[in-house]
Specification:
Blueprint lengths: L3 H5 L7 H14 L8 H17 L2 H10 L10 H11 L34 H7 L4 H9 L3 E2 L8 E3 L14 E8 H6 L1 E7 L2 E7 L8 E4 L12 E8 L4 E4 L2 E8 L1 H6 L2 E6 L2 E6 L9 E4 L14 E7 L7 H14 L4
Length: 334
């Protein structure tokens, strides 16, 4: 695989406008309508592939730090940095992966790095891996536009794009609404571009106002314009986010709280079974380590379970007497 900066003919310190300018010039020059045949298609795809990585600040930063290995599906930058430190080589570009634990007990410490984390041979890698190009560009090359759907968000074209000339497609902009719980783990949404629907991958940990950039999904042209989707993360009445940490309100009965029962909790990553500490106060929070939001640098926040006592409707005389006895027993004597 050629260096992506070489593919676009730009310096490594090029800014975003220079990258976009190079992409537009090259795609116009090597468009399949101009260079027909398999060779022309391969060159054009190589250009679009390179821009998909370098045109996005996050994937570009990872590529600058780790090179081609950052394009591998499942690559974990935090593990890579830790393994690089263990190797004592600042230029190391090994490939540590590790399967994430399906669940975590309350207050468990995070797992250590796997002992076999280390280098991965490129010859093996090129046969075994699935790169992020499959995710970033799959919709471009496999035509992941689906039939018109009334639930999809509409798109506006960018009439002010100063590069739109000579038959080039204009950029398009859209907004997509994403529930907070789905934004935490990542999901797919749909937006409408003209008479088609484009599938948009929302990255895990997305925040309100984040923009997903899709090369080649804007208005038709030679080359086609880009699509910029602004994410609107919807608030959740039970789930809140602060940084990488999450707090989830969990309804429980007074008996469950007092007795310390096990309860099943539906978290953004799936159902987990937790043990309530016996006799804990209603404001008590239980922490699930590393079950929060995954940050762009590989760091992971925690999930806090906030127990909320749900009382039955008023008017139960027997329950009232039981609560009065409980209060009398808890009142300090003397």
């Amino acid at each position: 695989m050629r260096d992506l900066y070489v593919v676009l003919g730009i310096e490594r310190n090029a800014d975003s406008r220079a990258i976009k300018r190079a992409y537009r010039e090259l795609t116009r020059r090597f468009h399949p309508d101009v260079h027909r045949g398999h060779a022309g298609d391969e060159v054009y795809r190589e250009i679009v592939d390179a821009y998909a990585i370098l045109g996005d600040d996050r994937t570009r930063a990872l590529y600058d730090e780790f090179g081609e290995l950052s394009l591998t599906r499942g690559f974990d930058p935090a593990r890579a940095r830790a393994a690089r430190e263990r190797a004592g080589d600042p230029t190391w570009q090994g490939s540590p992966w590790g399967a994430a634990r399906p669940g975590a007990a309350a207050d468990d410490e995070p797992d250590d790095l796997p002992d076999d984390a280390g280098d991965l041979d490129f010859d093996d890698l090129k046969h075994a891996r699935r790169t992020v190009f499959d995710d970033l560009l799959g919709s471009f090359w496999r035509g992941r536009e689906v039939r018109l759907d009334d639930d999809a968000d509409d798109v506006d074209t960018d009439d002010d794009d100063d590069d739109a000339s000579g038959g080039m497609g204009r950029d398009a902009r859209a907004e997509a609404s994403v529930p907070l719980a789905r934004a935490v783990v990542g999901c797919h949404v749909q937006v409408r571009v003209g008479g088609r629907i484009v599938d948009v991958a929302v990255p895990a940990g997305a925040r309100d106002g984040d923009v997903v950039h899709l090369p080649g999904h804007g208005e038709a042209g030679s080359p086609p314009g880009d699509l910029h989707v602004t994410l609107r993360v919807l608030p959740d009445p039970a789930l809140t986010r602060r940084g990488l940490d999450l707090t989830l309100a969990v309804p429980v009965t007074l008996l469950e709280l007092y007795r310390g029962d096990p309860v099943e909790v539906a978290t953004p990553r799936g159902a987990v079974r937790v043990q309530i500490p016996a006799g804990c106060a209603p404001e008590h929070k239980l922490r699930l380590r590393r079950q929060g939001v995954h940050g762009p640098g590989g760091e992971v926040g925690d999930l806090y379970l906030a127990f909320r006592v749900q009382l039955p409707p008023a008017g139960d005389a027997e329950l009232l007497r039981a609560l009065e006895r409980l209060q009398a027993a808890a009142r300090p004597r003397g």
